[in-house]
Amino acid sequence: MLRTLTILGSTGCAAMGGVFFAFSGFVMPALRRLPPADGLAAMQSINITAVRPALMTGLFGTAAVCVALIVTGTRSWGDRPAVLLVIGGGVYLIGVIGVTIVGNVPLNDALAKVDPASAAGVEEWARYLREWTAWNHVRTAAGAGAGALLALALVD
Questions:
Q1: What angle do CA 51, 53, 59 make, to 5 degrees?
Q2: The whole model's pTM is what?
Q3: In a 10 Å sphere around its CB, with 0-12 CB exposed, 13-18 middle and 19+ buried, how is residue 88 labelled?
Q4: Pure H helices in 23-79
Q5: Which residues of the chain have pLDDT under 50?
Q6: Among 19, 44, 77, 145, which lies 20 to 30 A Cα-Cα from 113?
């Protein structure tokens, strides 16, 4: 059961890191190339459609698996796999879930309130591109790193 849970956690972390990598790697650069009102409106639409069961299950289902792996790892503390389970799960919870809640979601909420065609919208878009993408780079690295750490826990 622990092996299956670890595989699930590793895969989920890596998959979420891949989603965030896509945004950092080409989605945000593509939106940046558009006129500000168009890029902002597109991102507002993306933020609405992102809150769907598939992404939320991947994001928070992986978090639940990581919590279970951390609990399991702390119960068998001392051996190498247990340490990797705790660290990998923690990296995901802090670097992906924590950063999403503290960094990306507030920026999404602020972006949702502006008119894309307004001067305030143009200013908000410039700030959003810079700050949201920086936070997203953290989520990308954390998801990939957590996935790798959990995969390493499978190696005896």
A1: 75
A2: 0.93
A3: buried
A4: 28-33, 36-50, 53-56, 62-75
A5: none
A6: 19
